[in-house]
Every structure is written in C-alpha cells, then in structure tokens.
Amino acid sequence: xxxxxxxxxxxxxxxxxxxxxxxxxxxxxxxxxxxxxxxxxxxxxxxxxxxxxxxxxxxxxxxxxxxxxxxxxxxxxxxxxxxxxxxxxxxxxxxxxxxxxxxxxxxxxxxxxxxxxxxxxxxxxxxxxxxxxxxxxxxxxxxxxxxxxxxxxxxxxxxxxxxxxxxxxxxxxxxxxxxxxxxxxxxxxxxxxxxxxxxxxxxxxxxxxxxxxxxxxxxxxxxxxxxxxxxxxxxxxxxxxxxxxxxxxxxxxxxxxxxxxxxxxxxxxxxxxxxxxxxxxxxxxxxxxxxxxxxxxxxxxxxxxxxxxxxxxxxxxxxxxxxxxxxxxxxxxxxxxxxxxxxxxxxxxxxxxxxxxxxxxxxxxxxxxxxxxxxxxxxxxxxxxxxxxxxxxxxxxxxxxxxxxxxxxxxxxxxxxxxxxxxxxxxxxxxxxxxxxxxxxxxxxxxxxxxxxxxxxxxxxxxxxxxxxxxxxxxxxxxxxxxxxxxxxx
Length: 490
Description:
31% of the residues lie in helices and 26% in strands. It is an alpha+beta fold. It has 3 domains: 104 residues, no CATH class; 144 residues, no CATH class; 113 residues, no CATH class.
C-alpha cells in the first residue's frame, strides 16, 4: 500500500441526484498503484442542507469539470451510493463534514493533452495511439524478467519474454493482447529513497488503427480473455478498467473502483489449471474455440467458469449445486434428436393428450389438472443421465478415473450428492470430509468438460489423469467404494 497520502487528483465536484439539490464537495482521488490496492475516494462537503435531503433510493452521480474554452478536465462517477454522512446530532446539518461512499459503478477521468485544430475530428473518430486494460492479480502469466542493479543501487528490469494472446472479435478486430507489468516510481523520502509499484495490464495491439468508437467491442473482447484467464489460473481475473491515449486527450475508466478483486494467498490457494509452458497454446486454442461457439454455448461455458470460481464467499454446498447445474447446462450443447422431432408437432400432441385426460371420468378434476400441467415434461425427451452420457461421449472427455457422475443406489454418485443437497441434506461430522472429496471430483469433472469444449487436451493440464496420479490425488477403485459407503451412512 502507498505510504504517502498525497492524492493524485484534488478538485471541486458536484454530487447530483434526480429530484434533489446538487451538493458541492471537495473530492480527492488516490489511485491504486497495483491490482491488490484499493482506490481511495474521499468527499468533504463544506456546506450542505439537511442530511436526509442527501440520501435517496436512486443512484447519484459525481461530476467535476475544468473549463477554458471547452472542458479540459472532466471526472465523472456514475452509480454512486452513499454509506453515511457525518453530522451533529443536534442540528442534523451536514455542513463541513465528510461523506462516506458505499459503491461506485464507474469512474472516468478525461484529460485534454492538446488543443484542437481549426477542423478537429470527432472525439469518437480519433485514432488511439495507446490502449491498455487494467488487470487484477495474475501470478503466473506475467512477463519473464530479471533485475540488473548497478553500482549506484539503481535497478533496470529486462523483459526476456512477454506472453501474448492472439484473438479476434467476429473478424472486426484482429490483433493480440500483451500481458505486461507496467512499473511506476516516485520519490518518497528524500533523494535516495523511492517506492516502485507495478500494475498488471493487457496492452492491445491491433492490425488496424483503433478508434475511440471501438472501445466497447474491445472491452467485451478483453472480458472474454479475462474469463479464459480465470479458467486457466483457477482464480477470478477481472478487467478493472482501461486507459487510452489519442492525439488530443487521455481517458481512464475504472470499474467498481471501490471494490478490488483479491486472490487467495499462495499458501491457501490452489495451483493453476494450465501450466506456464502450455499457457500461450491453451489461450490460442481456447480463443479459437470460443469464437466458434454460438451465444448459448458461450453462456454455458461462462456459467461453468463462474461456478468454478465465484466472486462471492465460498460455500461448499452452494458451490457444489452451482457446478452441477453448470455441468447440466453444458450437456445441453449436445443436440437431442428426440426433442427436435417433437418441436414441430408438439402443440397437436399436447392438445390430443389433454383431451384424452379430460375423458377419464374415473379420476378427479385435480388429478386431471395435475396431469395436464406436467405434460411439458414429456417434451424434454431423453432424461438427464442419457443426455449427459451422450454429450460426454461426443466430447471424448475421459472421466473413468473420477467419482462417477451417475451410479446406483448402493454407491452414491455425484448426482446422488446433488439431489441430497437440493433436498436440504447436510453432510456433517466425519462425512463432511468425504463430501469434500466428491466436491473435488465434481470440480475436476467440470474442468475437463470445459477443456474439451474449448478444444484443449485435459492431460496437458493439472486436471489430467497423470497429473492427479503424480499428486497422489487419484482414487483407486477400492478407495472410491469406501468413500461412497461412508457418504451413504446416515
């Protein structure tokens, strides 16, 4: 964390809300120097009306502008929610007090770096000379570098290898992202002491000139890359914002600046899924496969990765249900021929069955309504087990060394565990450790399925069979049966 309290920006701003008065505030912004730091935004109100008039259910906006002939500096914070306003209890006035922010959706800082010519281009048509996306922590996909100190104590960092991600966005944007660490330093105490910080970034290098109009589509592409980085690194990788520079201005955007994504410490975290020596080839293969998926396929893969690595606090029972639901969603990618046959004639079939049920005078009206309400179940075609087995077979994913997804009543399967949790059962005591092994195998199952959907061999990752054997995490047939028996015990 930074040891100095000098803000990067300090200016007057207005707190605006719909249907209420604007509040003049002194605003200070302390930008984070790396992905693990927090952004500090403080507001001080030299004069204000009653405290109650500030708060609202509606979102607010913070805005500041500096004018000469046109705005030369503009800061806008949208989606602002207040946490509290300090005020004296007797007067209930907020004059000369600080305002604590709860949440900001987006913060933008637009700085003019040169004046326009007599015939300027539109801002959105300006050519971008530099574009980078801010990344949260990403330990293993960093540039390979070494530090060379000199006799004065100065240090020079030589980059020997920068990892690249080649990608395209529906053939509109072709280029690559460079995963880099950008270093910055400033004087802290005297001439001989300084602090050095770094920020993980993805630098965009396109084949064609990039315009400001292209930012939304490139941001979506960067989010897709961040999703695949999350899967490869086995922890959430977030695009925290972006920074681009044109001939006339510098523009910075920060997403949810008051909330920074943290990864687990090394001693409590898990190893990455894709080894470093396989990283670039995995990203190349995954991006190519990702581009070929339709919207439904992308949503299924996205939900699977989010289920594996949620942003919320982990809960084994909740995570288990989310991962199994994601596995079911992926199985929907397999086209069910029975369902497709029923699509064109289902309305007539349902109408005929309803008439048949109405003619059954031997059953009550409630029973008739129950049967008619459940007719859509017939349209689902093959049951989940059959559909999932066909999907796994078509995906050529190998799962024989893991806890079976489906089984029999004597040996509980992953599906049996899912049903038990869905019906409110909890695995307490000694059975909780057994449940954790089942949860681990469901996680490995889902990882292998996603890898196959993305066209990458699971055996080249830490989820592969040989890797589990080397880590002594692979279960023998006898060990698996013992664990299943323990889980079945009441």
